[in-house]
Design a protein that fits this description.
Length: about 675
């Protein structure tokens, strides 16, 4: 038995270290036409589900209809997006502000949909920024990023943004332990064990507005937190975090953090910690982190630098935190729909341990401990264990659940998805995937009420599957019908970015809440022109502010003179349309900027610093009407110090034709435009 384990582990390690992924023989199985018809959604019909998929190193979130696999939209979150000017317009730049300044990129790994009573409620999705630790909230009424919160005392926000069953908290567990922000960080790296700490941030979500705030951070020993899930039902009040590097290595982790036979799942009784915090046991620490929100009324972001956070040391919360041993570098940490079973997936393990919440509680009560880890009681492995799934495959990563008591685990090394029964831990079915699956997503899989029906695997490597695109190949998604006993491949398609986690929402939850326009009368952007009569151009020192409007099919003003070298020009463009789906865009020649896209009733600002004298055409970038190509204009840039007066207008002669002199720039009155 022992020997077998060692052998399989050797294979696992070899696959991991040297060979990359093992490709199963029949992975290339064709999708039968019968199966493929299950993925067919007629033109004009909505998909039943929409899968919100992390973009990984693209920093964005993509939304695919399922079962069709049609890409619906890419939602910009942590990266600038030239498609709609997110992070380029003056109003949205603040969303990407951090304590390090403006950061136009992050690595988005996980998606979590807001829940009420353990069920998806269709209000928000959350996302983690892995590199410069951040949490984002996306408003599903607009498919826009509404809020980004930086996480202090953290580095690599990987164990995130998992939530509790009523969205009380969204979690941010640090991947890298580091010296905390207000300690002396100028220490030798090999003092890791002494100076490096982990943190688990519990971020409160306002039930009405969704606004996030850090309630408290738990300071932990210097392990790496990988993933987590909240308890639900009976285990509501607990959170479970997988951690690796319990060796506390600071170099060559692939070897040095793979020494111990078991790492841990950390079980955190957050209800109890709330009590400690309410009793004043927390400590205020000064830190610096950005909190950015976006308003649909001012159509602007506000970025605030927060300066304090409440921390509590794991040593000061007796009876609230326990360690459960979990074999070999656990990755996924998943809780079944009943809330009773906690599945730990050891990347280097040849079995899947399933823990029982009830047994864990009993072990705590009976103090069935196996010593402690840095002062945290370690529960005896067998005492918390419901059982092990034997020979599930190699390299288990993530597990999701259907509504019938089945679990689905992705196997990175043996490149397959394995279906097993949560009750008796028997393997029921296995299907090959094309190369190595990372996460998988069952519809409603992490909730208390899974919808089941489909499971989608997001694969890391796709050699031979798609048309070669040079050295880097497209990532792959594979959709399986799981309505029967056997999983059936019904579709595969390439994806954008590098998908990790994904969560699916029924179309019906999204459709009913969708915003169609922003009411122009509610527009509180300080630079809004709520009608052509309010358009104007103002000089303030070297700043030129253009209050511009857009309506089919002209911009007002569309002729502007009097801009000079050395000026910064701000085009504040208000879209006057009040019809659904009529955005206008704006761009000007030579601007070091992306376009901006302005929704009906909204104002967005485009900054341009002219670099030479001349005439600069600008135009609407969105094909908005039959006369969209006519939606254009000119800006004239004169030398610094020249006497060209500031004049503007649409359908108005700016220069006096008789003597060729320019009229004084007194007004932005626009001659009536015939439509
Ligand atoms: S991860 S492939 Cu960043 Cu969620 Cu597991
Ligand atoms: Cu407005 Cu094209």
């Amino acid at each position: 038995m022992k020997r077998l384990t060692v052998n399989s582990l050797t294979i696992v390690v070899l696959c991991f270290l040297g060979m990359g992924a093992c490709k199963p023989k029949n992975a290339g199985n064709a999708v039968s036409s019968d199966a493929a018809s299950k993925a067919y959604v007629a033109p004009g019909k909505y998909d039943e589900f929409y899968n919100f998929v992390s973009g990984g190193f693209s920093g964005q979130m993509s939304v695919y209809g399922l079962p069709s696999g049609r890409l619906l939209r890419v939602i910009p979150v942590f990266s600038q997006d030239p498609q709609d000017g997110y992070g380029y317009s003056e109003e949205t730049k603040g969303m990407l502000n951090t304590s390090h300044g403006f950061i136009p990129w992050d690595d988005l790994h996980h998606i979590e949909a807001s829940q009420t009573n353990g069920e998806i409620d269709g209000r928000w999705t959350f996302a983690n920024g892995n590199n410069t630790p951040r949490l984002a909230r996306i408003d599903l009424k607009t498919f826009r990023t509404a809020e980004i919160l930086e996480i202090p005392n953290s580095a690599g926000n990987h164990s995130s943004p998992f939530i509790t069953e009523n969205t009380e908290y969204v979690i941010a567990g640090t991947r890298f332990s580091v010296p905390l922000d207000n300690s002396n960080g100028d220490v030798p790296i090999n003092t890791y064990k002494k100076n490096f700490k982990g943190t688990l941030s519990f971020v409160k979500v306002d039930p009405k507005s969704g606004n996030m705030s850090i309630a408290f951070q738990i300071k932990t020993p210097g392990v790496d937190f990988d993933l987590s899930h909240a308890g639900k039902g009976p285990s509501h009040g607990w959170f479970f975090f997988s951690c690796y590097n319990s060796e506390q290595a600071n170099t060559l982790l692939e070897v040095n953090a793979s020494q111990r036979d078991k790492d841990f799942i950390m079980a955190v009784n957050w209800k109890k910690i709330e009590e400690y915090i309410n009793q004043g046991k927390g400590k205020k620490e000064s830190v610096k982190y950005a909190h950015n929100t976006y308003s649909d009324v001012t159509h602007s972001s506000t970025s605030t630098i927060e300066t304090s956070v409440t921390t509590i040391d794991v040593k000061d919360v007796p009876d609230a935190v326990y360690m459960i041993p979990c074999p070999k570098s656990p990755h996924g940490c998943d809780v079944d729909p009943t809330g009773e079973y906690i599945v730990g997936s050891g990347k280097l393990a040849a079995l899947i341990p399933v823990f029982s919440y009830t047994k864990m509680l009993k072990a705590i009560q009976d103090k069935t401990f196996d010593g402690d880890y840095d002062g945290i009681p370690v529960i005896k492995y067998e005492a918390a264990l419901h059982g092990e799934v034997q020979k599930p495959g190699l390299g288990p990563l993530h597990t999701e659940f259907d509504a019938n008591g089945n679990a689905y685990t992705s196997m990175f090394v043996s490149s397959e998805v394995v279906k097993w029964s949560v009750n008796d831990l028997k393997v029921l079915d296995r299907v090959p995937t094309y190369y190595s699956p990372g996460h998988l997503s069952v519809m409603g899989g992490p909730t208390a009420k899974p919808y089941g029906k489909y499971m989608i695997a997001y694969n890391k490597i796709t050699k031979d599957r798609y048309l070669p695109t040079g050295p880097e190949l497209a990532q792959s998604a594979q959709l399986f019908d799981i309505s029967g006993d056997k999983m059936k491949l019904i579709l595969d398609f390439p994806t954008v970015g590098e998908p990790h986690y994904a969560e699916a929402l029924p179309a019906s939850l999204i459709e009913k809440n969708s915003v169609k326009i922003y009411k122009i009368e509610n527009n509180a952007n300080p630079y809004a022109a709520k009608g052509e009569a309010q358009t104007k151009v103002e000089r303030k020192g070297n700043q030129v502010h253009v209050y511009m409007t857009a309506i089919r099919s002209h911009l007002t003003p569309d002729n502007i003179e009097g801009i000079k070298m050395g000026d910064e020009v701000y085009f504040h463009v208000t879209n006057l349309e009040q019809d659904w789906d009529v955005p206008h865009g704006f761009a000007i020649k030579g601007a070091n900027n992306a376009e901006i896209l302005i929704m009906p009733g909204e104002t967005q600002t485009y900054k341009w610093t002219p670099d030479r004298v001349g005439i600069f055409p600008f135009y609407c970038t969105d094909f908005c009407s039959a006369l969209h190509q006519e939606m254009q204009g000119y800006a004239r840039v004169s030398p610094a110090g020249s006497s060209t007066p500031l004049v503007w207008g649409t359908n108005k002669n700016l220069s006096a034709p008789a003597n060729g002199t320019t009229q004084p720039g007194s007004g932005g009155a626009t001659n009536p435009v015939k439509r």
